[in-house]
Amino acid sequence: MSRIQLYDTTLRDGSQGEGVNFSLQDKLMIARKLDELGFDYIEGGYPLSNPKDEEFFQRASEMEWKHAKITAFGMTRRKGIKASEDVGMQALVNSQAPVITIVGKTWDLHVTEVLRVSLQENLDMISDSVAYAKSEGREVIYDAEHCFDGFHANPEYALQTWKAAADAGADMICMCDTNGGSLPAQIAAAVKALTEEVDVAIGIHCHNDSELAVANSLAGVEAGAVQVQGTINGIGERCGNVDLVSMAANLKLKLGYDVLTADGISRLTELSRYVYEIANMNFRNGQPFVGSSAFAHKGGMHVHAVNKIAHSYEHITPEAVGNARRILVSELSGRSNIMAKTTKFRLEEDKDLQAKILGAVQDLENDGYQFEAAEASFDLLVMKNAGTYQKTFDLDHYRVNVENQSREPVTEAVIKLAVNGESQHVVGEGDGPVNALDAALRKALTGSYAGLAQMSLVDYKVRVINSTEGTAARVRVVIESKDRDDVWSTVGVSENIIEASWIALVDAFEYKIHKDRGAVGDSPSA
C-alpha cells in the first residue's frame, strides 16, 4: 500500500505538555533517533520563541539527515503587515529549515473574537503567509487550527480558509482537531469534504482530550489523509496528542501502509522508552504496543493458553514492535533485544552469553536500572560478561565535602585510585558533588587517557525509584556525555545520590576510554 507520512512534533507540541522540558541536546538526540527510524518530518519548534529553538535549527542545518525533513513551525503574519516584513515569518525563513509549517485560523469565532480581525483579513493572512514561504523556496504545510470545530460551526468559511492556503501554493493542508473533542465520524466527514474541494495533500493532527486521538487519526487516513502529525508517547498539552507509536504500529501492522524504515516498527519500544528517559518521565506500563504490560500475562488458564498458542491472547507478536512477552509469575523474556544490541560486538551467535547478559540485565533492572536510554552502560555490561572489558583504574576511595562559605557552598571531591600501577591522590572543586567528582576523576585519568580531554558532560537527570521510602528512597541517575563525534548516556542506581552519580560518571569515563580503543563498535548516541 501507499506510504503514510509521519510528522513528529514531540520537540514542539510535545514539549508543551505539563512537566516536559527538553534541553537543546535532548532535542538533537531525539531528532537523530527519529531520523534513524525513518520519520518523514521532524518539527523542531518555533525559531522566534526562544534562543534554544533558534539554536536547534542552526545545529540541525549543519547535520546530515537520512530520512527526515526538519520543519520550522510558526503562525501566519500579523494583521496589517506584509508577510515579508513580519518578524515571525522572517524567523521561519531564516531558520534554514527546508519545510515551514504555518498555523492559521479556521473557526470564524477565533478570527473575530481572538484575533479580532475581519474574516477577509484572516484569509489574506493565510494566503500571504503561505505565498511568502513558497516564494522563499520552502515546502509549506498549512496547519488549519480548530479545523473541525470551525467546519462544524461555519463550513462555508472553513472551506474558504482551506482554499486560501491551497491557492497560495500550500503543499499540504493539515486538519487539526485542536480541542480534541471530535468523534471519528466527524473527522471522516470533514476530511472527505476537503479532499473533494481542493487538490492538495491532506494531513491530520488530533489531540487526545476525548481519548480518541488514535481512532480519529485512523478515520482521517481512511478518509484520504496521507500524513499524521503527533508525538512520541502522545505527550503534549492538556491530555496530549495522538501517539505516533500506536499510529505507526496500527498503520503498518493492521492496515498495511508503508511507514518508517524497514526495521522501524520493530524498534518502536526502544523509541518509546528512549523518549521517556530523555524527558525524565515514567514509562506507562499499560501503554499499547510498547508498555511493559502490553504483553504481560498472569495466572492459570490464561498463561496456559499463551504458552500453547500465543496469538490466542495477543493481537500481534510482541517482537513485531520490539517488545517482549512477560509471564508475571515467573518473569520470562526472550533474547531478541539482547541479540540486536550485541550485534556490534559480533556476539549474536553465542546463545549462552546472551542468556548470561539477559540474566544480568534482569537482575539490574530489578534493582532499578534502565538501559533503554543508557546504552553506553549496557555496552560496558556486555563487555564485562563477554570478558573483553579492560579495567581502567582501581579505586581506593573517594570523598565529597560540601561547605557553606560566605553564602555560596563550596564542593570539594578527593579521589585516591591507581591507574596503570601508579597511585593518584587528587582533589577537584566544582559547583556541586558531581561536578567536583568529574573534575577530580578527569585530573587523575587524563594523563593516561588523553582522549578524556575531548569529553564533557552535557546533562544530568535524577529519578526517585521507590518514592514510598521517603528520603531513604533509591534513585536512578542518568548522565549524558559527549565528545567531538558522539553522545552517550550512562546510568547508576543507589540509595545514595552521590554513589549513584559516581557509578554513572565512572561508566561515562570508561565508555569514552573503551571507545577510543575501538572496543565498543558503533556509538550508542541517538
List the helices and strands and how they pair.
Layout: E1 5-8, H1 24-37, E2 41-45, H2 51-61, E3 69-75, H3 87-94, E4 99-105, H4 108-115, H5 119-135, E5 139-145, H6 147-153, H7 155-167, E6 172-177, H8 184-197, E7 201-206, H9 213-222, E8 227-230, H10 244-254, H11 268-278, E9 296-297, H12 300-308, E10 326-327, H13 336-341, H14 351-366, H15 375-386, E11 394-405, E12 408-419, E13 422-430, H16 433-445, E14 456-464, E15 475-482, E16 487-494, H17 497-516
Parallel strand pairs: 1-2, 1-8, 2-3, 3-4, 4-5, 5-6, 6-7, 7-8, 9-10
Antiparallel strand pairs: 11-12, 12-13, 14-15, 15-16
Please provide a written account of the structure.
There is one protein chain. The protein has 526 residues and is of the alpha/beta class. It folds into 3 domains: 5-261, TIM Barrel (Alpha-Beta Barrel); 335-392 and 456-526, 2-Layer Sandwich (Double Stranded RNA Binding Domain), CATH 3.30.160.340; 393-448, 2-Layer Sandwich (Double Stranded RNA Binding Domain). It is built from 17 helices and 16 strands. The strands form 4 sheets. Strands 1-2-3-4-5-6-7-8 form an 8-stranded parallel β-barrel, surrounded by 10 helices. A 3-stranded antiparallel beta sheet has the order 11-12-13, covered by helices on one side. It has a 3-stranded antiparallel beta sheet with strand order 14-15-16. Helix 5 runs parallel beside helix 7, helix 14 (351-366) packs across helix 15 and helix 16 (433-445) runs parallel beside helix 17. It is globular and about 80 Å long. 47% of the residues are buried.
